[in-house]
Write a structure and sequence with these properties.
By secondary structure, the protein is mainly β. Helix content is about 10%, strand content about 30%. The protein has two helices and ten strands. It has a five-stranded antiparallel beta sheet with strand order 1-4-8-6-7. A hairpin with a 3-residue loop joins strand 9 and strand 10. The radius of gyration is 28 Å and the shape is globular. The mean pLDDT is about 85.
């Protein structure tokens, strides 16, 4: 029969072996607290910067914290005689907003989606809204994308937006094949969502 001393030695060897097997740093739960600094800012200086494009026709107001696109002939429009877009027509507004990547990662997808909240639900967004895209100087090649699509097409414009780079977008409103009886209801709410994605993360900064 083994002595008490030899049994204790044996158990000690077993524990040492088990520790080597599972690693001395093994744990079940760790909870740690760290300080995180977060601040918000207006559209112009946010990670995804939004500002009125040069020569936007007076349809974009960026004097406040949030960019406002006003196509109803209101205070933002230079043309004081106009009170709205034509019915039964397709109207194009190029170079309304300049989007700037103020972040540190390249943007690989930049999608624009117009949503219409209407009690009668007669406006089909896909038939009514498209977007134009062009270099940030407003010149050069233009491209057109459908509602909800990525404007970084890689055709006439770049397929990505590197840190510090900018691009312009505008809007096409089709009231021939779209709208509500070739019109846009004034009682509806129109919301534009700008969604930027990088290769490593996703953000929805503005709507």
């Amino acid at each position: 029969m083994p002595s008490r001393r030899s049994v204790l030695v044996g158990l000690g060897g077993l524990v040492a072996g088990g520790g080597a097997l599972i690693g001395t740093g093994a744990f079940t739960t760790v909870e740690a607290q760290r300080t995180v600094n977060v601040s918000t800012t207006g559209d112009g200086s946010a990670f995804l910067g939004l500002a009125a494009a040069r020569d936007n026709g007076g349809f974009v107001d960026d004097s406040g914290d949030t960019v406002i696109i006003d196509l109803d002939g209101g205070d933002a429009a230079d043309n004081a005689d106009g009170t709205g877009i034509n019915q039964r027509a397709e109207t194009t507004f190029r170079n309304l907003v300049t989007v700037t990547n103020n972040g540190t990662q390249s943007i690989t997808s930049l999608s624009l989606t117009m949503d219409v909240s209407d009690d009668d639900d007669d406006v089909v967004e896909a038939d009514t809204f498209e977007f134009t895209v062009s270099p940030s100087d407003g010149n050069g090649n233009q491209d057109t994308v459908s509602n909800g699509s990525n404007i970084l097409t890689g055709n006439n414009v770049s397929s990505s937006l590197s840190s510090g780079s900018s691009i312009n977008f505008g809007m096409i409103i089709d009231l021939i094949d779209g709208g509500d009886s070739q019109n846009l209801p004034s009682s509806a709410t129109y919301t534009l969502t700008v969604r930027a994605e990088t290769a490593n993360s996703t953000a929805t900064p503005s709507s």
